[in-house]
Write a structure and sequence with these properties.
The chain is α+β, with helices and mostly antiparallel strands. It contains twelve helices and 25 strands. The chain is globular.
Length: about 500
């Protein structure tokens, strides 16, 4: 039996991030050379993940964050299976796991309590609860360690693009120049608005109050009342958070101005209206509100300006998909934009970012719409909820809904071929350990069980693992840097055609 071989062209160490360039003079509005390849507006999870992905390919990145300090409150978010796989692909998973709490991959869809399906197709088949500021910090540190530059207190006030790049105006009057601009600046994205991209959908019809505070009654009394109300109202809970505080979620009386935070009195009023008691809540640490607005950008790209994360799509938080959807956007976009900048991208590669990711967002918007209907306390939605609860006792139904929420059901349209084509490949065993351990550098990978193929002139972009023992049901697969299967087969000529399709012309 042939021994496994892993060949990879050495990747240069990331160069230091460029120092901020002085503001251009009137006589020289566009300093040359352009100091940045990409400016990213927004340093949330999407922006930080994108910056790191670009730096894996030595792209010069500047991230602008309008806030000077992280958010003052701690909100727990969940990393679903696909996002955990992405962290493993970049060597981040162990670091992330240190700060989170695992729970079974179950009960996501509209809060319907069912056990996790057995045999989910992943080595990371669980949910990881982690504080939002922590995951932002970890991803930002990762990007900075790779050489990205982050500037806080910098808000984008305007921009102009031309055939060579984008000139970005900051709120303080400074002007910056880059080859591309990516808006990762949230649901109220300044970049999207300045770009003039439509954001159609539905405004908020309902609103939910969320906060962290102390209560004035025994924990047993709180738990009993929450269990009673929770039978029919899935937008209501009080959960111990630690240090004597509770996480409190309660439906609001109506839809207010999201720019205005709710008051403690608002919480007391709604708690009394729904539970008959305000539980003696006091000493709030933070108070917030969120609505169920659902919107999707008409386009993800206009010339040299792109959108990702909440700047491209917003939806209710039910199912906990928002952060995951944005991070996965960044993972899809990063290597494609880097390929464009490095000069080897096939002509239509960057356009596949929209054609692949926008349908995924449409699907998420639809499943959150459905979940919100199932949260309604009206008789019709409650009857539908009871019916779906019964149907979810069927393993295939339960599995389908969990795979949808966890984003492991995604199949990009790469043309005709086996079902695995276009899907992500799980973290299978190979003789060098685990497959995802070979993807840390953000390059393509040929997993060759025949041990007779080659990546030839693409070796500067694609690694080659010859391993006849790999646990795989097909002869060979070509993986894109995001882990999706771009080709299946054993013919060198056919492989070369697909290498050209995804990784451009071979090097001379």
């Amino acid at each position: 039996m042939n021994s496994p071989q892993f060949t990879a062209e050495p990747s240069p160490s990331p160069s230091p991030s460029p120092s901020p360039s002085p503001s251009p003079s009137d006589a020289d509005p566009y300093p040359h050379p352009v100091p940045y390849d990409v400016i990213i507006a927004g340093c949330g999870p999407t922006g930080a993940m994108l910056a790191a992905e670009l730096r894996l390919h030595d792209v010069r990145v500047l991230v602008l964050e309008k806030e000077t300090e992280p958010a003052p409150f701690v909100r727990i978010v969940g990393l679903h299976i696909r996002s955990l796989e992405l962290m493993a692909m970049r060597g981040l998973l162990d670091r992330v796991l240190e700060h989170g709490r695992r729970r079974p991959a179950a009960g996501f869809f509209a809060g319907i309590s069912k056990p996790a399906p057995e045999g989910l197709d992943s080595a990371h088949a669980y949910l990881l609860g982690i504080p939002h500021p922590v995951i932002v910090r970890l991803l930002e540190e990762h990007a900075v360690q790779l050489g990205a530059q982050v500037r806080r207190g910098c808000a984008v006030a305007g921009f102009e693009q031309d055939d060579e790049g984008v000139t970005v105006d900051l709120a303080d009057g400074e002007r910056l120049r880059a080859r591309y601009l990516v808006g990762c600046d949230g649901g109220r994205s300044a970049v999207r608005k300045l770009l003039g991209v439509g954001f159609p959908g539905e405004p908020s019809r309902t609103e939910t109050l969320m906060g962290e505070m102390e209560v004035g009654v025994p924990q047993e009394e709180v738990a009993a009342k929450v269990a009673e109300i929770g039978e029919t109202n899935k937008r209501f809970w009080l959960r111990p958070f630690g240090g004597g505080a509770y996480s409190v979620v309660v439906p609001a009386a109506g839809v207010g101005d999201r720019a205005e935070p709710p008051t403690l009195q608002d919480f007391k009023q709604q708690l009394r209206a729904i539970a008959g008691t305000d539980f003696g809540v006091h000493s709030p640490r933070w108070l917030s509100r969120f609505g169920d607005a659902t919107r999707l950008a008409e386009r993800y790209r206009v010339g040299r300006v792109l959108l990702a994360g909440d700047a491209a799509h917003i939806h209710p938080p039910t199912g906990g998909q928002g952060l995951n959807l944005g991070v996965q956007d960044a993972f899809n976009l990063g290597w494609k934009l880097a390929a464009q900048i490095r000069g080897w991208a096939p002509e239509t590669l960057l356009d596949t970012y929209q054609t692949e990711r926008r349908p995924v967002a449409e699907n998420v918007l639809d499943n959150t719409r459905a979940q919100m209907e199932l949260h309604s306390t009206e008789p019709g939605p409650q009857a539908l909820r009871r019916l779906l609860t019964e149907l979810m006792d069927i393993d295939e139904v339960n599995r389908r809904l969990i795979e949808k929420i966890a984003a492991i059901d995604i199949r990009y349209d790469f043309g005709d071929g086996p079902d695995l084509l276009g899907r992500r490949l799980r973290d299978i065993d190979v003789e060098q350990g685990h497959l995802y351990g070979l993807l840390h550098r953000g390059r393509g990978l040929l997993l060759d069980r025949t041990a007779r193929l080659t990546v030839g002139g693409w070796s500067d972009r694609v690694d080659h693992l010859a391993d006849p023992t790999a646990v795989l049901d097909v002869p060979c697969v070509l993986l894109r840097p995001d882990g999706h299967v771009a080709w299946i087969g054993d013919d060198q000529q056919d492989l070369d055609a697909h290498l050209s399709r995804w990784f451009g012309k071979p090097a001379n």
